[in-house]
Design brief:
Blueprint (H helix, E strand, L loop, with lengths): L2 H13 L4 H15 L12 H16 L6 H8 L1
Protein backbone atom coordinates (compact mmCIF):
# COMPACT_ATOMS: atom_id res chain seq x y z
CA UNK A 1 0.00 0.00 0.00
CA UNK A 2 1.49 3.34 -0.96
CA UNK A 3 1.62 6.45 1.21
CA UNK A 4 -1.15 8.23 -0.71
CA UNK A 5 -3.65 5.43 -0.04
CA UNK A 6 -2.61 5.25 3.61
CA UNK A 7 -3.14 8.99 4.07
CA UNK A 8 -6.60 8.82 2.49
CA UNK A 9 -7.56 5.91 4.76
CA UNK A 10 -6.25 7.80 7.81
CA UNK A 11 -8.24 10.92 6.95
CA UNK A 12 -11.38 8.85 6.38
CA UNK A 13 -10.92 7.19 9.78
CA UNK A 14 -10.46 10.56 11.47
CA UNK A 15 -13.56 11.95 9.76
CA UNK A 16 -15.62 9.11 11.25
CA UNK A 17 -14.55 9.87 14.84
CA UNK A 18 -17.43 11.26 16.89
CA UNK A 19 -15.61 11.75 20.22
CA UNK A 20 -14.09 15.22 20.59
CA UNK A 21 -11.61 13.93 23.20
CA UNK A 22 -10.03 11.66 20.62
CA UNK A 23 -9.72 14.54 18.16
CA UNK A 24 -8.05 16.63 20.86
CA UNK A 25 -5.62 13.76 21.47
CA UNK A 26 -4.73 13.64 17.77
CA UNK A 27 -4.18 17.40 17.75
CA UNK A 28 -1.82 17.17 20.72
CA UNK A 29 0.09 14.28 19.15
CA UNK A 30 0.45 16.14 15.85
CA UNK A 31 1.69 19.24 17.67
CA UNK A 32 4.32 17.18 19.51
CA UNK A 33 5.53 15.60 16.28
CA UNK A 34 5.71 18.95 14.51
CA UNK A 35 7.65 20.46 17.41
CA UNK A 36 10.20 17.70 17.07
CA UNK A 37 9.47 15.72 20.19
CA UNK A 38 10.78 12.22 19.88
CA UNK A 39 8.29 9.43 19.93
CA UNK A 40 9.43 6.03 21.11
CA UNK A 41 9.91 3.69 18.21
CA UNK A 42 7.85 0.54 18.15
CA UNK A 43 9.91 -2.58 17.82
CA UNK A 44 8.33 -5.79 16.56
CA UNK A 45 8.05 -8.60 19.06
CA UNK A 46 8.19 -12.32 18.52
CA UNK A 47 5.07 -14.46 18.49
CA UNK A 48 6.10 -15.87 21.87
CA UNK A 49 6.43 -12.37 23.36
CA UNK A 50 3.08 -11.39 21.91
CA UNK A 51 1.39 -14.48 23.35
CA UNK A 52 2.97 -13.82 26.76
CA UNK A 53 1.63 -10.25 26.72
CA UNK A 54 -1.81 -11.47 25.71
CA UNK A 55 -1.83 -14.04 28.53
CA UNK A 56 -0.70 -11.43 31.08
CA UNK A 57 -3.29 -8.92 29.84
CA UNK A 58 -6.09 -11.47 30.05
CA UNK A 59 -5.04 -12.40 33.61
CA UNK A 60 -4.86 -8.72 34.61
CA UNK A 61 -8.37 -8.20 33.23
CA UNK A 62 -9.71 -11.23 35.11
CA UNK A 63 -8.08 -9.89 38.29
CA UNK A 64 -9.67 -6.46 37.78
CA UNK A 65 -6.35 -4.75 37.01
CA UNK A 66 -7.46 -2.39 34.28
CA UNK A 67 -8.70 1.16 33.72
CA UNK A 68 -11.65 2.20 31.61
CA UNK A 69 -11.28 4.55 28.65
CA UNK A 70 -12.71 7.57 30.50
CA UNK A 71 -10.05 7.26 33.20
CA UNK A 72 -7.26 7.05 30.61
CA UNK A 73 -8.57 9.96 28.55
CA UNK A 74 -8.90 12.11 31.67
CA UNK A 75 -5.29 11.35 32.56
CA UNK A 76 -3.72 11.99 29.15
CA UNK A 77 -5.88 14.67 27.56
Amino acid sequence: MDIHVRKIQLVQSILNIQDEKIIIGFEKLLKRVREGETINEIFPMSIEELNERIDKSEKDFEDGKFKDIDTLLAKYL
